[in-house]
Design brief:
Number of helices: 5
Largest sheet: none
Membrane topology: Multi-pass membrane protein
Subcellular location: Membrane
Protein name: WAT1-related protein
Helix content: over 70%
Radius of gyration: 19 Å
Main location: membrane
Keywords: Membrane, Transmembrane, Transmembrane helix
Length: about 130
Amino acid sequence: MGNELMVFMVMVIVQVAFAGMIIITKLVMDSGMDPFVQSAYKPIFATISIAPFAYFLERKTRPKMTHSILFQIFLCSIFGITANQYAYFIGLNNSTPTIASAIDNLIPAFTFIIAVPLGLYTFTILKVCSMDFF
């Protein structure tokens, strides 16, 4: 019972923090900050705050950085994070935090729509087991 309450409380705290981040971002952009500058500051701040934990806690277990891994990180950062942040901040600049929060929840649906044509996910309407994404 206590563990379930803790999970619930953490979930609520994360959602409140996420909503606060959206509202603060909207206020910053309304005061004149460019969305492209905002999307550059966000990953820089995240890297500075998370990198020490990753270095000290994972230094003995992390894999070697090969060219293939660095290229995959580059592709994920350009297409997965940067493009998403640009679209998100431009949309937030032109609308409300409520709409931005609702649109952000559509990312799994867009991922699914992209994954099916690329063959990363096989989808059969008649099979119940292929509907596990719902």
